[in-house]
Amino acid sequence: MKYRRLVIFTVVLLSMFIITSQISGAGPVTVKVMHQFNDAENAKFEAIVAQFEKDNPGIKIDLERDNSPASSYYGKLVTTIIGAAAPDIARVEPPKAAQYTAAGYTAKLDSYVSYEFYKSLFPGTLEPVLKNGSLYGIPQDISTLVLFYRTDMLAEAGYDSPPATWDELVEVAQAINKDTDDDGEIDIWGLGLFGGWGAFEFYPWFWAAGAEMFKEEDGKLIPAFNSPEGVVALQFWVDLIYKYKVIPEGAATYTEDDYKGPFIAKKMAMFTSGPWTVASLKENKAIEGKWAIAPIPTGKRGASVLGGMHFIVLEQSEHKVEAMKFLNYFMQTDVQIDWTKSLNLLPIRSSCYDDPFFSQDPLMQAFAAQLTVAKSRPTIPEAGEIDNLFGQAWQAALARVKTPKEALDEAAEKAIEILSH
Q: What is the CATH number of domain 26-136+308-372?
């Protein structure tokens, strides 16, 4: 009888403890992460999460992978924010990070990151997530455009190094251009630049000319891309096609896919691309040891464009401390080195490039050099519309529908209307 009473008493106490624990919120804190990683990234991310949870039993990471189109993904994210049901962490494009910060959706992270971590990031990656000097997001991955070139083709033309300036680029490309069939048509091209991705491919040259997208005037932001420097940059591309004839005339609508084949087949000596191209070229034994990369040739200055994604912590999150504990774990040097090695990505932290895996790889060192002068595309709320206008103006000039000045002036007038609303 005494034993039975003891058992009942124990069960009652245990039940009260469980109920009290649930009411008081004891037990693991759940941090919800919304993302769109691809299959390989998702598998690696899940492995990192598993290790984090093992090391931090008081925190559970709930991953929500959404592979719907970007418009649907961001629509869903905003709906959760408006409905006060947002995830704690979301992976977003840089322009979205800036827009959400401007709207007050993102949490200020200054108190959660170390000065050492902050300084180890490439400056350009912070542009979309800085507001009034404070940090509102963390770069999650990073990419940039560089110059891919055939070392064998340059050597055959008498060059032992890639072009470093615009003038050298023209010289080297013209030396390589050939009409091997004597039919008046060039079939070996010195250079491949393309317009099929909108303005993305043009930004490095635009900035290298000293141009900027916007400027402040009387306290207002106005378009500045139709400046003399902007016109010079666009005229240079037009001249590469029609004056120097080192780029095919279809460049206005071509994409990277139109050039990778000729590059491998030794029909094109140079083109621009990013880290996503490295793995496929390394796997092709036909060009093994016959290619390399270098920073994009400079105009008035060196420049390139950044790609990549950011993590944001939502302001309405009740678990900011735990969310940032996970992000700090993901961003620590050893985890980042493992992440980038496994997926053939670029590390977001400059300190990672000191690791032997990266420091002894000339490709990675070239990317690191380019990242020091790479910039993010505009991240103001109207950036998407204005970027489209900018890209259309560029393509119109490349197709000779308008002169560079006409195309940029017309786009600037429309951009003024967009900014005034």
A: 3.40.190.10
